[in-house]
Amino acid sequence: MLKRLLQPFAYLPLGLLHAAGTVLGWLIFLTSRSYARRMRENLQASGLCADAGECRKLLHQSIAEAGKSVAELPAIWLRPQRRVLELVRECRGWEHVEAATQAGRGLILLSPHMGCFEIAGVYSGAHLPLTVLYRPPRMQSLEPLMLEGRTKGNVRLATTDIKGVRALARALKGGEVVGILPDQVPGNGEGVWADFFGRPAYTMTLVGRLAETSGATVLLTFAERLPHGRGYRLWYEPLPAQLTRDKAQSATALNAAIEAMIRKCPAQYLWSYNRYKAPRGVEKPVLSPES
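Now predict its structure.
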């Protein structure tokens, strides 16, 4: 039913979808107090704005980009793979992917909640076998559509449980590629508190464990939305600092790398995401009076 409802929107021009997404973003912002409050708080606390005027401008841009991330889904999920790949206008850093796959130790692609992370998976999976870790949506009716949209080409999905982690480990052992949302809040016992834009965020330790046990290369990737619906520019970049056995150091290095990527295109990060929540059973860190 949901697929049938969204199908007519799949082949609309991307510019039109993004224009509708801008309106949608503002509607959500103006009608959901919790959504608006979280977006404002996260942006203001990020330190990315020099003054109130700059913060207001970045907030308005982020509202529009968040709406675009929803409106573009029919095009990414429901078009055939070939038509989706036509939306990628430029790819920077693919040489890092090629070097990692030639080494044969596997590759971990980290795609934060930034830009069109859906098309980043489609593009990577069109070239290499890719196993992506995913969390089933709260809205169960959305899951069949999500599964269909994300399993184009060589893409397989692995759920966020022990079975899924084992699937990732097997893929890396075979020299394949795995994809992870590195800024997704993990469950109790699966993360540590680490600084993210000056505030403690419960950060997954899975990436460091997989990198350590497999020797895989770790790259960051995101698909930047180009203006006026012209398509997307894909980025593949190595982490500035190597992940170590120390969980806290690895989590801090991971968050610093994500921050650096966000600073390139801050409006396209999903600031409405509840990045600073404490999972059930996890105590929030005690902050010093200076914090």
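Residues 158 and 164 are 4 Å apart (CA to CA).
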